[in-house]
């Protein structure tokens, strides 16, 4: 049985060790037929960029031409070989291990990249003079080593293919930790990284570069004059990550091997899709191409099923996308204006509430312009925190792709509220959640969330934003180890605003179906009675749905009505079904 390769970054290792490989080799032909020799492609973290880069090296490397059958037998490209196969000397550079410490980054860059260039030179030493290796070894900087390699190859007439993985990893770290000035020093003028890219611009017959955002390349090359950006091209929407078809093939393979035989394929897909699926990277791919799963998350989840027979707790997986500190840094990046942080916070709230207006995705923008309204959303898109969820008037509509990402926004909202209102808010809420689970009273938690919501919003003198209270409630619930939150489960032709049910068999005695209604401060009593009636009617339908009975796990299932007027708790009603 082939093992799922979690965390493996080498295509050659996957094949050499007979691990499971999702065949993406058809994209090699697409790249060769694109008519472009210098290509730039970005995707969020954990989408398989490194495996793809290593696959390209194995395919194009002249030193491994005789290993083509070993590595590509039983793949799509084996029966569709292009003329470019085994034609190039390949320089494969991975920048993921370069330090983001501004004090050591230049040394680390020259050391790590310089050694990588020397290793590649040794691989191709038979093509050059006896002095070739010693000459490169005697050169101190990565830029000059690369320049010498390219010059010798040009003299000899050997084509060279440059592959660069995680090109912006250390620059993003410097931008977030050391600030714009330090970042500017290495990417502009005579900065060492900009000097390195001057060699890149002129020394190669083919280039393929990957990273997370287009920002650094824009700063290095004055607007993509080095490569064609194919990131938003619908033809490459599924080049990295897994399609649902591919996920189903993986599941069926392991079912046939007997390791997932107790699970139904549809059950696995229905559990994973709300958490790991729904990435779309082009407005023109939205209607005509399969959406993409995060491959690392799928692999981690399936390995848990194979090894332990159960899904990861809460469906969360480690190292998924970005953390709170990174999102906080993005929101507070521009300190030019005192209100910048609040403006970004409102944008993040709009994202959580699904109120992002249609806008084009910026293909190119420098670090100085990240916080411009449209670029800010585009930056979150490139990080995987937003995805294309539709089209309107020819422009993409951006939204949160899945529950994993939504949890990240909730974490930001929760901790940002705690920073602004009360540092002890999170542990306080945790105790109230535990109380609701044990004692069957969720009112103290509701009152605490209402108070925090009012203080947070009042700090910015905002009027009540419908739906934001619900987001606050869910944000604080997302930090607990007691309850699950149903991600938009349909119950009797509707969707409960909040459904809290036990995390497996953990001794909880109470579950809660909560309906939220919002009133303007000047709303009449009649409006209030209408809201109460509607909430009661919805809850009556929801509690009768079999899914509510199943997920509540024989606990006392509460029907809870919460009516908010302005920033105050106007009405609270709690009844056991």
Residue runs with pLDDT of under 50 for 5 or more positions: 335-339
Please compute the radius of gyration using only Cα atoms.
27 Å
Q: Which structural class fits the helix and strand makeup?
A: alpha/beta
> What is the third-level CATH name, the topology of the largest domain?
Rossmann fold
The CATH architecture assignment of the largest domain turns out to be 3-Layer(aba) Sandwich
Spatial sequence of strands, sheet with the most strands:
2-3-4-1-5
Q: What is the number of beta strands?
A: 14
Sum up the overall morphology in one term.
globular
Helicity range: 40-55%
- The number of domains: 4
The percent range for strand residues is: 5-15%
Largest sheet: 5 strands, parallel
The CATH top-level class label of the largest domain = Alpha Beta
| Total of DSSP H or I helical runs spanning 4+ residues | 23
* Overall pLDDT metric: 89
Question: Termini separation (Å)?
Answer: 49 Å
Protein architecture, described:
The chain contains 23 helices and 14 strands. It has about 575 residues and is an alpha/beta fold. The strands form 4 sheets. The chain has a 5-stranded parallel sheet. Strand 13 and strand 14 (about 570-575) form a beta hairpin. The protein is globular and about 90 Å long.
